[in-house]
Design goal:
2 copies of one chain form a homodimer. By secondary structure, chain A is mostly helical. The first copy, chain A, has one domain (13-35, 43-189): AhpD-like. Chain A is 63% helix and 0% strand. Chain A has helices at 13-19, 21-36, 43-56, 60-73, 78-89, 98-112, 119-127, 132-154, 166-175. Chains A and B meet through helix 2, helix 6 and helix 8 of A and helix 2, helix 6 and helix 8 of B.
Chain lengths: 190, 190
């Protein structure tokens, strides 16, 4: 049971968003810009950063839903779902571009704490082609999921048990996005 | 030096906001609602939660600026500045209402990780008069500062050395707020 009176049957962050629409609005907008807005990083890459950070923070709802979003951005095949599981299990050895591998390293440090990021981490990402905006957005995605993860688990929100029910959620997140109102919340009452 | 090319002389988060106005907008809106929006918790109480979380995360820019905002909301006397320093040093024994002391306990747990919050922490806050919205907002303020702190330090933003220069910043944050555009950013080029 959630720590406060959230509407039943709304999974994870959607129940919290419905409880407090005032704060949901900027939080949804931030996710939409970071994960689906115009960017030289693909949405699949940005959802992968979100999934890896959420996995590190052991937030089941966020890591499964954003893993599904990453997989859906890549085509939604079983191989894509297997791929994101492998990336989360071992980001440093992941089957991704050298640039994304370096950005995942930065994201992992930000998750632990902002001061953990070193000049060498930044230099490694730059050498692999990362721009300043890409580094900025990686830091902010990791920081933002340090918020979303704590929000979801700090309220003890209800979360579906079976991994399969996160796939339709990920599909909607990938293709319809985050900016809709709480009344039509992603995954609501699914 | 910051990890990416932020404009020089803009302290802490203001330089990052100016670098990426698209993400600055929802981040400013969230801070404005959480810290200055209509609420049964006073702005002084909410800024105190923000300062305590930022102190725990060792984010010098955020903890000094939000400490100043908390002190300014209480009147801005030397005693108010001394008071917030004492609260940060020992939140569990702080000279605050029993309700705020219980909410600071929840915020401290959220800072460590969402799953650290127990039913007993929530019950203690309820027994001291906290409502569901107050508990929700405490969790979200602590989660949001887990983001802002990581954003500020993960980019290695420039931060004024002397504690005194955070006072005019805190005064503006308390009395003018967070919702202004990046061009007129709080503390910009001060």
């Amino acid at each position: 049971m959630a720590h406060i009176a959230l509407e039943e049957g709304m999974p994870g962050i959607t129940g919290a968003f419905a409880f407090r629409p005032e704060t949901a609005k900027p939080m949804r907008e931030l996710a939409e810009i970071l994960l689906r807005g115009p960017n030289t990083l693909t949405s699949a890459e940005r959802e992968t950063i979100a999934a890896v950070v959420s996995h590190g923070n052991e937030c089941r709802f966020c890591q499964l839903s954003h893993s599904a979003a990453a997989a859906e951005h890549r085509g939604g095949r079983e191989a894509d779902y297997a791929w994101i599981e492998a990336v989360k299990a071992n980001p440093a050895g992941a089957d991704v571009s050298p640039k994304l591998r370096a950005l995942l390293q930065i994201a992992g440090k930000v998750r632990e704490g902002g001061k953990q990021v070193t000049a060498a981490d930044i230099e490694a990402a730059r050498e692999r082609g990362a721009t300043d905006v890409e580094i900025h957005d990686t830091v902010l995605i990791a920081a933002a999921f340090s918020m979303y993860n704590r929000y979801v688990d700090g309220l003890a929100t209800w979360q579906p048990e079976d991994a399969a029910s996160y796939r339709p959620m990920g599909k909607r997140m990938a293709h319809e996005g985050y900016a809709r109102s709480s009344a039509e919340a992603v995954g609501a009452r699914s």
